[in-house]
């Protein structure tokens, strides 16, 4: 390895280290370095000097360092700067950010205590960041300019000649480009979607409160005690209103007492009802009121609702959900099997076997349009299709069946056609040589080969459709989803928890029996 190569690597590594400590943003009298920003909350910037050191060490230790030992420290520098730029663009909070509404194109904003400093992205650029850019570029380009340094000469003892072996620097660059592109996409989407490994942990208190309820305060306990005290009055007042409504329902309005007389009569009825209540009945009303007030204030999904009459209603709604999934999957399979033979090139060639230009054009057109038709069927989510069908045919499970049918048909049609194209051609050729027709070949050669996959994917989609059907009720397409939506709107989270547990148990049972059915076809 030449001395010049080592010098350039040392220069590049020094640039990354020195640039980290020199100013990145300069605005008199303020100077802000990479180290300052790293301590300010962007700790990932500490990788920049480390990558510079990591590039220099292999060159000093090894006589013949490999290209990747120089390229990947440079890639690390590129990725670190990409992370910083992505954070500035996509984060709307923090000390350092981009403000597009800033004056005079000074769009980089730094929040310093109570003051804000705006920087121009070019005019206020400091020497540190320029050195970092230059060092990264040198590391990424050195293997290309010094690719001859990686040649090795080996003596072939058999033929008495030298063999020059060139390591594929171009292959290293291809790998470098693929990895860099992949991580660039991940970094941009990471910042765009505001992914944060610590956010869930930081909000664990909210999750615990949402799932298991919150601690009751003194004001909450006062509210619960007040509801318990007022429970008898509220119950008696409701019964009195019902009594008065029934009493004067068929009486002409002109012959009814005035509002004041009705109020006095209603109060008398209420007091009479209170006097007639037994102590046990009063205690039951108070306990129920206290329980409801406690649930209302405490919130949370746990413990789940255990009332047998309510669970019975949930199970009935779940049976309707399973029925929606059964019919949606069945109709989809019935339609997907025949259409998949036209979407697969090999079976379509059996149906239209001629090799003239017209036949080839017809086969290509049929395959293209069938596949685009399948794309359009699965292009929209079941939820969107259910919205459309509810608007067209009204509320009920039939809209959910149609939505699942079309979406599942698009998925299974694609899967079945791809599996048909992957079958073993030897069996098809054997039957063809006997003079069998296209439909005989499909029935006795193609179908037996794809049957295990057909059954497996059908059962998988059925299981998935059960979960999907549970959500379609949110838009009025029947099933248990309608109850879940209603209870969520009423903040009855414990009942929602019970329904979710029932759905999970049902999916587990369905998966168990689907596995047994699938084993019959393997």
Automatic annotation (TrEMBL):
<feature type="transmembrane region" description="Helical">
    <location>
        <begin position="32"/>
        <end position="61"/>
    </location>
</feature>
<feature type="coiled-coil region">
    <location>
        <begin position="263"/>
        <end position="297"/>
    </location>
</feature>
<keyword id="KW-1003">Cell membrane</keyword>
<feature type="transmembrane region" description="Helical">
    <location>
        <begin position="491"/>
        <end position="510"/>
    </location>
</feature>
<keyword id="KW-0175">Coiled coil</keyword>
<keyword id="KW-0472">Membrane</keyword>
<feature type="transmembrane region" description="Helical">
    <location>
        <begin position="314"/>
        <end position="344"/>
    </location>
</feature>
<feature type="transmembrane region" description="Helical">
    <location>
        <begin position="125"/>
        <end position="146"/>
    </location>
</feature>
<feature type="transmembrane region" description="Helical">
    <location>
        <begin position="466"/>
        <end position="485"/>
    </location>
</feature>
<feature type="transmembrane region" description="Helical">
    <location>
        <begin position="176"/>
        <end position="192"/>
    </location>
</feature>
<feature type="transmembrane region" description="Helical">
    <location>
        <begin position="438"/>
        <end position="459"/>
    </location>
</feature>
<dbReference type="Pfam" id="PF00528">
    <property type="entry name" value="BPD_transp_1"/>
</dbReference>
<keyword id="KW-1133">Transmembrane helix</keyword>
<dbReference type="InterPro" id="IPR000515">
    <property type="entry name" value="MetI-like"/>
</dbReference>
<protein>
    <submittedName>
        <fullName>Phosphonate transport system permease protein</fullName>
    </submittedName>
</protein>
<feature type="transmembrane region" description="Helical">
    <location>
        <begin position="7"/>
        <end position="26"/>
    </location>
</feature>
<feature type="domain" description="ABC transmembrane type-1">
    <location>
        <begin position="318"/>
        <end position="511"/>
    </location>
</feature>
<feature type="transmembrane region" description="Helical">
    <location>
        <begin position="70"/>
        <end position="90"/>
    </location>
</feature>
<dbReference type="GO" id="GO:0015416">
    <property type="term" value="F:ABC-type phosphonate transporter activity"/>
</dbReference>
<keyword id="KW-0812">Transmembrane</keyword>
<dbReference type="InterPro" id="IPR035906">
    <property type="entry name" value="MetI-like_sf"/>
</dbReference>
<dbReference type="InterPro" id="IPR005769">
    <property type="entry name" value="PhnE/PtxC"/>
</dbReference>
<comment type="similarity">
    <text>Belongs to the binding-protein-dependent transport system permease family.</text>
</comment>
<dbReference type="GO" id="GO:0005886">
    <property type="term" value="C:plasma membrane"/>
</dbReference>
<feature type="transmembrane region" description="Helical">
    <location>
        <begin position="383"/>
        <end position="406"/>
    </location>
</feature>
<keyword id="KW-0813">Transport</keyword>
